[in-house]
Amino acid sequence: MKHATATSALAQAAGEARLLARRLGPLVAQARFAAAALVPGNHGRRRVGMGENFWQFRPYRPEDGSRRIDWRRSARGDRFFVRERELENAQNFFLWLDPRPDFDWHSSPGLPTKRERGALLLLALAGALHRGGERVTPLLSGNASPGGAFALDQLAIHLFSAPPEPPFPQNGRGAYILVSDFYEDPSVWRSRLKAFQARNRKGILVAIADPTEVDFPFAGRLRFSAPGGGEKPLVERAETLAPAYRAAFAERRAAIRAIAGETGFEFAAMRADEPAAPALARIAALVRGPR
Q1: What is the per-residue pLDDT for 31?
Q2: Degrees (nearest 5) of the Cα angle 22, 279, 116?
Q3: CA–CA gap between residue 151 and residue 133 (Å, rounded)
Q4: Which of 57, 184, 257, 276 could disulfide-link 81, Cβ–Cβ 3.0 to 4.6 Å?
Q5: pLDDT at site 246
Q6: Average of pLDDT values for 235-248?
Q7: What is the phi/psi pair of residue 56, to 5°?
């Protein structure tokens, strides 16, 4: 019964992600992911090749054949010209969703877990990327996820089967989108991202937190416990801990953001209770990069 419930929740998440991806697909596709430093894929390669965008006119050569002549441009003078397009390549996007039990947690049954919200954002982004002709690979199988009606369902299964930590960067170039709460010691993430930096691999860190982890709204006599057990001592006046907790939370976030900057990664912070569409739009803006 537990497996059936998990399967149903997974199918619901995939369905919701598919609808969200359909709404935001044009936003992502229109940008054409122009930031070469972040995502070296389907954008202009500044040279002649297969693509949709005009690159340049050049004088006609006999080996071109008459069908390649651009008659409108040629009519302006006494020479024939050929229209050339700019080479474009599909991008590779590698996705990882933190599988730790601590990440699969929420403070209220009415909220998604941090992991569920991360899965929704990754699946929606993957749907938009597929429609833009990009390649999406979960950091598990090593194979690009297929297109078609069941792509998101299959990708969701792979995402929920991720290894405990991001695998060493893949051989192919591309952008890595890593989703976690990043509550492990910053030195752990510095070591991981240094391995990516050593191979000139970049991407985006998406940090997702439960609203209670950000706001610390507790007051009165409480006993805290960690996900999966490990009760803490009883606290008589929880509100007295709030200032120190919030300062520590901000310090940890700042440390991860700094490590991301040092290693060539972008950083985005999300809350599990915020609407998915604007959160996805912020990730898409980082994927597009500066114009």
Answers
A1: 29
A2: 80
A3: 13
A4: 57
A5: 95
A6: 90
A7: -170, 165
- Domain with 71, as residue range(s), is 46-88
* Averaged confidence pLDDT in the chain: 77
Task: Give how many domains the chain has, as a whole number.
Answer: 2
Is the confidence at residue 78, as pLDDT, over 80? yes
CATH number at residue 205: 3.40.50
Residue with tokens 């007051």: 219
Q: Please indicate whether residue 65 or residue 46 has the higher confidence score (pLDDT).
A: 65
- The CB density around residue 77, as the number of other CB atoms within 10 Å, is 8
Centre a 10 Å sphere on the Cβ of residue 21 and count the other Cβ atoms it contains: 21
Q: What is the pLDDT of residue 52?
A: 45
Percent share of the chain, pLDDT over 70: 72
Please indicate, yes or no, whether residues 27 and 106 belong to a single structural domain of this protein: yes
CA distances (Å), origin 165, targets 2, 93, 117, 246: 26, 17, 19, 27
Report whether 276 contacts 121 (CB < 8 A). Answer: yes
From residue 227, how far is each of 115, 175, 245 by CA, in Å?
13, 31, 18
* Residue 60 or residue 26, greater confidence: 60
Locate 228 and state its tokens.
Answer: 């999966």
Q: What is the 3-state secondary structure (H, E, C) of the chain?
A: CHHHHHHHHHHHHHHHHHHHHHHHHHHHHHHCCCCCCCCCCCCEEEEECCCCCEEEEEECCHHHCHHHECHHHHCCCCCCEEEEEEEECCCEEEEEECCCHHHCCCCCCCCCCHHHHHHHHHHHHHHHHHHCCCEEEECCCCCCCCCCCCHHHHHHHHHCCCCCCCCCCCCCCCEEEEEECCCCCHHHHHHHHHHHHHCCCEEEEEEEECHHHHHCCCCCCEEEEECCEEEEEEECCHHHHHHHHHHHHHHHHHHHHHHHHHCCEEEEEEECCCCHHHHHHHHHHHHHCCC
